[in-house]
């Protein structure tokens, strides 16, 4: 079940990336993106570095960074991307104060590549600027405390830079997920922890490459074979997730079919019992009651005998449609017998129950299908005032059959 839940979260994340930014998520995203641009420009202006700037090295780093962003390991609401492999060398082969802006360029270029593959909505490229916050901390720490070529004596500075990376990345993700999307913080912490573990694992490798790249910038490309290997592993994981998503959807379809009445499309006896059980547990824990309405189609046998079973089926379908139209959208509707339907409206008292019954009667008034009027008897009860759901259901049944007997006597 946990695996299926994780797979469902990944499927939802994929759909979200392909959708437009809306509401509070859009506001938070653009605020974070604008904040990053201000921080990155400030860093470029206020911090200095003895490392010379090379246009071709910068262009090479941006393109390589964009390629590495295509290596993804999907986890719940997000992805792990091994950009640590390039971020660390970039801090030493280029002026560190420019690295956040170059990282942003690489992320945006990677987003364009995803857009071309229809894996990202155009508006969500702005989200990538929020992701670039992780580069600001290391650029500031190294630019202020240990500018220039890497040195083992500055290892404590690099540890501080990594800690600042984790801090800003965590803050940006929590702001976007918790504030922007309303996700519980606990749901986000686990993926963030995995991201930190991956970055912590790759950081020593990236630092070793940085020592070589300080003398020869092209050594920075040594990380690409490792990135390619990770891409293969990520692609294999994606295929497994695709299979799990298909399996999960198939299971959902089977579960839905098992709980759906094939003739009318409303719930069946199983879905009704599950709805009653769920509402009963809620009543026991929170005291939230429910109203029950049972509806029985009159003269179905006579219709079948006179006009055929197809005519009877059309009456049943018409009754189901009328009930769905009349009852509240959050109420449960099920066909619990050949000609009997039941409605469960949680949180409704006697007065609300009477309004539901009145709406059903209005919907059925004058309803004719193929020249045959759709007539039904109705019984209803609520808990409270009934002490239990079983008592309410028995009372609703009694009222239904009392009305059915009275109707039969009026129309012999």
Detailed description of the structure:
The protein is 67% helix and 9% strand. It has a four-stranded antiparallel sheet, sandwiched between helices. Strands 1-2 form a two-stranded antiparallel ribbon. It has helices at 2-17, 23-46, 55-68, 84-93, 99-116, 125-131, 136-145, 155-181, 185-215, 223-258, 269-286, 300-307, 309-326, 350-364, 389-410, and strands at 73-75, 78-80, 290-297, 332-335, 340-346, 368-369, 372-373, 376-383. The chain is α+β, with helices and mostly antiparallel strands. The chain folds into two domains: 2-255, no CATH class; 269-410, Reverse transcriptase/Diguanylate cyclase domain (Alpha-Beta Plaits, 2-Layer Sandwich). The chain has 15 helices and eight strands.
Brief write-up:
This protein is 67% helix and 9% strand.
Spell out the blueprint of helices and strands.
Blueprint: H1 2-17, H2 23-46, H3 55-68, E1 73-75, E2 78-80, H4 84-93, H5 99-116, H6 125-131, H7 136-145, H8 155-181, H9 185-215, H10 223-258, H11 269-286, E3 290-297, H12 300-307, H13 309-326, E4 332-335, E5 340-346, H14 350-364, E6 368-369, E7 372-373, E8 376-383, H15 389-410
Helix pairs in contact: 1-10, 2-6, 2-8, 3-4, 3-5, 4-9, 5-6, 7-8, 8-9, 12-13, 13-14
């Amino acid at each position: 079940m946990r695996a299926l839940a994780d797979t469902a979260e990944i499927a939802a994340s994929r759909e979200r990336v392909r959708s437009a930014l809306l509401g509070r998520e859009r506001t938070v995203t653009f605020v974070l993106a604008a904040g990053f641009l201000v921080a990155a420009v400030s860093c470029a202006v206020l911090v200095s570095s003895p490392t010379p700037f090379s246009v071709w090295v910068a262009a090479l780093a941006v393109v390589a960074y964009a390629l590495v962003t295509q290596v993804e390991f999907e986890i719940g609401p997000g992805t792990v991307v091994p950009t640590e492999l390039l971020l660390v060398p970039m801090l030493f082969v280029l002026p560190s104060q420019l690295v956040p802006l170059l990282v942003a360029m690489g992320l945006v270029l990677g987003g364009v590549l995803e857009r071309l593959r229809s894996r990202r909505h155009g508006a969500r490229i702005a989200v990538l600027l929020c992701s670039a916050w992780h580069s600001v901390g290391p650029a500031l720490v190294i630019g202020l405390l240990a500018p220039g070529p890497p040195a083992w004596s500055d290892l404590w500075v690099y540890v501080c830079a990594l800690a600042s990376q984790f801090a800003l990345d965590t803050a940006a993700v929590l702001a976007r997920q918790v504030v922007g999307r309303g996700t519980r913080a606990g749901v986000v912490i686990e993926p963030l922890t995995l991201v930190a573990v991956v970055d912590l694992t790759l950081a020593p490798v990236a630092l070793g490459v940085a020592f070589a790249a300080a003398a020869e910038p092209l050594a920075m490309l040594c990380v690409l074979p490792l990135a390619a290997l990770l891409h293969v592993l990520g692609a294999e994981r994606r295929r497994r997730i695709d299979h799990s998503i298909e399996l999960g959807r198939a299971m959902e379809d089977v579960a839905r079919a098992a709980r759906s009445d094939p003739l009318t499309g409303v719930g069946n006896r199983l879905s009704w019992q599950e709805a009653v059980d769920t509402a009963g547990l809620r009543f026991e824990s929170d005291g939230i009651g429910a109203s029950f309405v049972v509806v029985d189609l009159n003269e179905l046998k006579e219709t079948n005998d006179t006009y055929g079973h197809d005519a009877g089926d059309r009456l049943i379908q018409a009754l189901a449609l009328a009930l769905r139209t009349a009852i509240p959208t959050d109420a449960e509707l099920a066909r619990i017998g050949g000609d009997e339907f039941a409605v469960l409206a949680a949180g409704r008292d006697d007065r609300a129950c009477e309004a539901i019954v009145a709406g059903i009667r209005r919907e059925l008034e004058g309803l004719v299908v193929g020249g045959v009027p759709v007539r039904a008897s109705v019984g209803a009860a609520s808990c409270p005032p009934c002490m239990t759901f079983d008592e309410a259901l028995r009372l609703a049944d009694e009222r239904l059959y009392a009305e059915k007997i009275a109707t039969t006597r009026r129309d012999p």
